[in-house]
Amino acid sequence: MGQFFHQYLEPIKLNDVQVDWKARDLSYLMEDNYVKHFTDMLKRANPVHGNDVLLKVRNIDGDVRIPYQDQSDFERIASQFHVFEEWKDGVPRTAYKGVVFFRYQTSRRIFLVGPDSLKQLGIADA
């Protein structure tokens, strides 16, 4: 198993770029602003459904939104991307309103979207 993960994971490296956080506008992280920012990203993401989502994602430019129905469905999809599959208290770890997102190949974002996530975020089913 170690070789399997070694193939996909890089060692953790300390940041060597200085960032002046006090000079940055981080207001988008305030809850009301973040919900709007997050839902806007989610709305713009291309929906992908069905089997072989990894293959489909490779053929789409830009961000992608993939629905999952339950824990086993989430784990099946997450394993295709080699991302963390763990759940706690009935939701995937790192989820926000049932949505887990991560970067996949360059800057592309993948959103794994739970069955009630769009409703929780005030997004009409797309």
UniProtKB/TrEMBL annotation:
<dbReference type="InterPro" id="IPR029044">
    <property type="entry name" value="Nucleotide-diphossugar_trans"/>
</dbReference>
<keyword id="KW-0464">Manganese</keyword>
<keyword id="KW-0328">Glycosyltransferase</keyword>
<dbReference type="GO" id="GO:0030145">
    <property type="term" value="F:manganese ion binding"/>
</dbReference>
<protein>
    <recommendedName>
        <fullName>Alpha-1,3-mannosyl-glycoprotein 2-beta-N-acetylglucosaminyltransferase</fullName>
        <ecNumber>2.4.1.101</ecNumber>
    </recommendedName>
</protein>
<keyword id="KW-1133">Transmembrane helix</keyword>
<dbReference type="InterPro" id="IPR052261">
    <property type="entry name" value="Glycosyltransferase_13"/>
</dbReference>
<keyword id="KW-0472">Membrane</keyword>
<dbReference type="GO" id="GO:0003827">
    <property type="term" value="F:alpha-1,3-mannosylglycoprotein 2-beta-N-acetylglucosaminyltransferase activity"/>
</dbReference>
<comment type="similarity">
    <text>Belongs to the glycosyltransferase 13 family.</text>
</comment>
<keyword id="KW-0808">Transferase</keyword>
<keyword id="KW-0735">Signal-anchor</keyword>
<dbReference type="Pfam" id="PF03071">
    <property type="entry name" value="GNT-I"/>
</dbReference>
<keyword id="KW-0479">Metal-binding</keyword>
<dbReference type="GO" id="GO:0000139">
    <property type="term" value="C:Golgi membrane"/>
</dbReference>
<keyword id="KW-0812">Transmembrane</keyword>
<comment type="pathway">
    <text>Protein modification; protein glycosylation.</text>
</comment>
<keyword id="KW-0333">Golgi apparatus</keyword>
<comment type="function">
    <text>Initiates complex N-linked carbohydrate formation. Essential for the conversion of high-mannose to hybrid and complex N-glycans.</text>
</comment>
<dbReference type="InterPro" id="IPR004139">
    <property type="entry name" value="Glyco_trans_13"/>
</dbReference>
